[in-house]
Amino acid sequence: MSIEIKASDSSGTMTASEVVAANSATVHKTAGRVTVDDPIMCARDVQVFYGDKHAIKNVSLDIARNEVVAMIGPSGCGKSTFLRCLNRMNDTIENCRVEGNITLEGQDIYDKKQDVVQLRARVGIVFQKPNPFPKSIYENVAYGPRIHGLAADRVELDELVQTSLQRAGLWEEVKDRLMQPGTGLSGGQQQRLCIARTIAVNPEVILMDEPCSALDPIASAKIEDLIDELRGNYAIVIVTHNMQQAARVSQRTAYFHLGDLIEVGPTDRIFTNPSQRLTEDYITGRFG
Amino acid sequence: MNKGSGTPVSTRTARQTTALVAATIKRRRRAEARFRWYGRCAVFVGIFFVFMLFFSIVSKGYTAFQQTYVGLDVTYDPALIDPQGNHSAESLAQGDYQAVVKSALRKVFPDIEARADLKQLNALLSDDAGYELQRRVAADSNLIGTSERVWVLGRDNTDMAMKGHIARDETEAGRPLSNRQLDWIDALKSKQLIALRFNSAFFTHGDSREPEQAGIWGAVAGSFFTLIITLLLSFPIGVSAAIYLEEFAKRNRWTDLIEVNINNLAAVPSIVFGLLGLAVFINILGLPRSAPLVGGLVLTLMTLPTIIIASRAAIKAVPPSIREAALGIGASPVQVVMHHVFPLAMPGMLTGTIIGMARALGETAPLLMIGMVAFIVDVPKGFSDPATALPVQVYLWADSPERAFVERTSGAIMVLLAFLLVMNGAAVVLRQRFERRW
Predict the structure, then answer these.
(1) Does ipTM surpass 0.90 in this model?
(2) Domain edges within chain A
(3) Residue-number span of the structural domain to which B46 is assigned
(4) A146-176, pLDDT tens digit by residue?
(5) E strands along B187-312, which residues?
(6) For residue A201, which residues of chain B lie inside 8 Å, CB to CB?
(7) Which sign, positive or negative, has the C-alpha torsion A245, A247, A252, A254?
């Protein structure tokens, strides 16, 4: 069941601080259209609590196929928390409670019958800091297929590792040293290795939690190109602090503020003509 | 405290501030130099005492690795050693080998006649001399009827005289050897029939009331069997407990309570574990007294907290990003632990285990409580044979009145320290070689 949430009226003459005060008191209505026509994932009225802290308030958002959704917002606004709800990485955090409804292809991922292992194979995640296993490059990529039994024999596994590394744009750089430790690569290469490791499991959705924040601009540019290419096969959700990056790689942008999803829309509209004062202030660098 | 320039704080110029700062610098430098000296003194005191420890043990103990042997030209007289005359084992076991030794020694000093003097002369040799001949004949019956030179053990007092531990300027009544005995030793020396040789018996014999026959092998074997039990039990149990508490257990009042108790257990005096072992393993479960099995169980109780604490620290040191990475591509929690956390924490766990084992090896008190302090001559051959352990052997020998046990005590300590150094060295190597840093 999809809920149409209408864009609220522009906040008019209120100052930014008044808006913030108003937001924390009441449930915010998201501006813009949160739904898409053929969503792969749907989040409805998601609430996240860390103990008593209300980290995510009533967020609804659809994720479309073959599209990059960027989530932006100041630190602590809940965008990473929301991202981690999408493949239940929050399960590992004690006293974290998730309410609401998130579906993947129509199935509730928080359903008791949903196996977390299978969910994470379908919804992969790439983290902020490159975190290759302290094993060889080959083993890093082969690990996922191995535990999920995706390759029948060594030949298939070799092929899977190669195509994954090729898709991650790393094959040419590492094909001669597959048996060397993944931790010996440069930061950007490590992050692409992590992406290769994620796509080796052939997920449907890839979540990226500030994948470039620990990288230099050249390595970041490579990752951005890669994201653009991967869009052909996967739905991608990316959290970023870098607004240019969001503008470059994403088709839709969601702006989070203090646990509220303030505004969602096509990226070019959000960055040129935001309907919300908060969004505008953040994008123009007045805070955040 | 504004003791400086006289101008109010708010209107102070940069130059005045600099002057105020400069005034404090000297004091700070002095404090720093003083602190450095405290540190140096502390380190020096530590090194000094370690050196003193080693010096005192080595200087007392190095002679334990040598032992006085007397060269005898023995004749294996069939009349004495083979009473039935048929070379059978039964007959050879009834032989009077002591008589062979006595006659051989008498040949060196043919002019001694009085019974009392002969008794004194024979007292220079160990009881083991006769047994040595018996062993040789038992191994090769062709020796019967032949002659050969055999080096047999001297008695402990002979050994002490050879090593200069018997004061010759003392009155005769004040020392364990008489004037004549000392003269005979000198005579043997001049004939090159008495010598200090490498003390292989020290490393191959079990305990004995006679110092010259006492060795550490029984205690080493006892320690070995005890530690095997300890290792086999404490490593798997400790590591499983650590993994469960770190990776799987929910944080609540119960796990907090368990954590506090594990930390407290690490500080419980070891003799308490000995009492527990006595009450539970021996009195309730009826396991054998003085056995390495029970010793190992008790030391397991004592070592577990050490291993659990070290293993938990090693597991904590594995960065969460590795766990997230594995979880993120769909590894189950057990796979995360088995494929990533456990291998990465292994060096730290092993280091903790080795250090725990080293502590267990040096532990005495709990073993006293379960009867591993008994005087045991036979070298234990299994986990349920009566045994003692190296540090307990040290304790037993230190308690013995004979002068010759002093060097043996120190010798046994040196062996114990060598084992401990090797174990701790292994822990250091393991840590440096395999520990990852992120």
Answers:
(1) no
(2) 31-131+204-283
(3) 9-62
(4) 999 998 899 999 999 999 999 888 999 999 9
(5) 194-198
(6) 329-330
(7) positive
